[in-house]
Amino acid sequence: CPGNGICKCRVCECFPNFTGSACDCSLDTAPCMASNGQICNGRGTCECGTCNCTDPKFQGPTCEMCQTCLGVCAEHKDCVQCRAFEKGEKKETCTQECMHFNMTRVDSRDKLPQPGQPDPLSHCKEKDVDDCWFYFTYSVNSNGEANVHVV
């Protein structure tokens, strides 16, 4: 019972936080905690202290690595552009495809949310269809709601 329990009559009796026939399965979820505070980045299950990624695009010890994913900024650029400026590739389909986040307009870049807030935050600088830069932040709160602030 590798130090995680007591052997009685050839059966392991596990200490708290351990399970399995040999007490070799830790119930501690701390090793599965992703940087966003979610177990296995919300893309897997924590089994014996190790993430089992259920979304095949994601891998790594906390299911945070995705080789084929666009960055948060590139992924949401078209929707932010059509919601904020009524232009871009999704202009015609904006109300169908781009209502998945709350949007707040701000007057200047210094009014954008800054690092240090409780929710993970991405600062984005993207080019619009007119080849101009626009700035926005993207964050997801503890209720799973996405919030965008755009200049």
Automatic annotation (TrEMBL):
Keyword annotations from UniProtKB, A to Z: Disulfide bond, EGF-like domain, Glycoprotein, Membrane, Repeat, Signal, Transmembrane, Transmembrane helix
InterPro entries given in the database record: EGF_extracell, Integrin_bsu, Integrin_bsu_tail, Integrin_bsu_tail_dom_sf, Integrin_I-EGF_CS
Domain Integrin beta subunit tail: 73-151
A matching Pfam family: Integrin_B_tail
Gene Ontology MF annotations: C-X3-C chemokine binding; collagen binding involved in cell-matrix adhesion; fibronectin binding; integrin binding; laminin binding; protein kinase binding
GO cellular component: cell surface; focal adhesion; integrin complex; synapse
GO BP terms in the entry: cell adhesion mediated by integrin; cell migration; cell-cell adhesion; integrin-mediated signaling pathway
Protein name: ITB1 protein
Organism encoding this protein: Bucco capensis (collared puffbird)
Taxon lineage: Eukaryota, Metazoa, Chordata, Craniata, Vertebrata
